[in-house]
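Let us practice reading a record.
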Amino acid sequence: MIKHIVMWKFKPGTQAEQGQFLEGLRGLFGVIPQIREQEIGVNVTAGGYDAVLVSVFDSREDLAAYKADPRHVAVSSLCKAIREDRTAVDYEF
């Protein structure tokens, strides 16, 4: 099993786009079959990163398939336009 954790810091003034991006991510669960679990959260404290995605995949190959899936690529492209920073960690458990 692979846990995939991604955090984003968004550019100021992009709240509408942030909502659209996060809803787009939520919409991938149950659509892209490789996603076993998914949790998306928005930071409730000041500072640090603004949002986080925690998802689970059966294997590295499934994670790679998710990343290459055109539905994920479309959602991800919106994020690239509104983020200041992104960090990710993938680990086996």
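A brief commentary: The two ends are 6 Å apart (CA to CA).
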